[in-house]
Design brief:
This protein is mainly alpha-helical. The protein is built from seven helices and no strands. It has helices spanning 14-33, 37-50, 61-77, 79-84, 89-113, 132-148, 150-153. Helix 1 (14-33) runs antiparallel to helix 3 (61-77), helix 1 (14-33) runs antiparallel to helix 6 (132-148) and helix 5 (89-113) runs antiparallel to helix 6. The chain is elongated, with a radius of gyration of 19 Å.
Length: 160
């Protein structure tokens, strides 16, 4: 009988978590090399002008890049916990997958429209678009794995 790999059994979701984090790292590189902040910052300023409560910050390149590199490093560091299917990781994994799926959709919609808000246009594709399919695939894979492992993650231990 063939023995299954640890990430393929039980309640672990390490491989899709790791894949999404690789996609996230690739996406940071994509955004950094295609001028993402030249679109993001004016969009935030326009949104604040329209809705004063708009909560997103503007960034300088260095602080933005260092923050994202730190975020990617934290996600890589959490991979062993995801592989073991740590219960406390499940809500974080859902949040991570939803945020990255939304991120991918935002870049795709921006590419289709050629703008974020009416006053912020850019040549197509949108900065960060090329890595968006990897974010989309990684997010969906993580969500599917989380759904598939939900029952085993919350099963009560059986006494002998």
């Amino acid at each position: 009988m063939e023995q299954q790999r640890p990430h393929a059994v039980g309640s672990g979701f390490g491989l899709p978590w790791f894949a999404l984090t690789v996609a996230f790292a690739l996406h940071v590189f994509d955004e950094a090399t295609t001028g993402f902040l030249a679109v993001y910052n004016p969009t935030v300023i326009a949104m604040r002008a329209r809705w004063g409560w708009f909560p997103m910050p503007t960034f300088e390149f260095r602080e933005w890049l260092v923050g994202l590199i730190f975020g990617v490093a934290v996600c890589f560091a959490l991979t062993p916990f995801a592989s073991r299917g740590a219960r406390w990781m499940r809500p974080l994994a859902w949040f991570y997958a939803v945020v990255q799926l939304s991120n991918a959709m935002g870049h795709t919609i921006g590419t289709i429209l050629g703008h974020t808000v009416a006053s912020v246009t850019f040549p197509r594709p949108a900065p960060g678009f090329y890595s968006s399919p990897f974010l989309f695939i990684g997010s969906i894979w993580l969500m599917v794995r989380l759904r598939k492992t939900a029952a085993s993650a919350f099963r009560l231990p059986v006494s002998a």
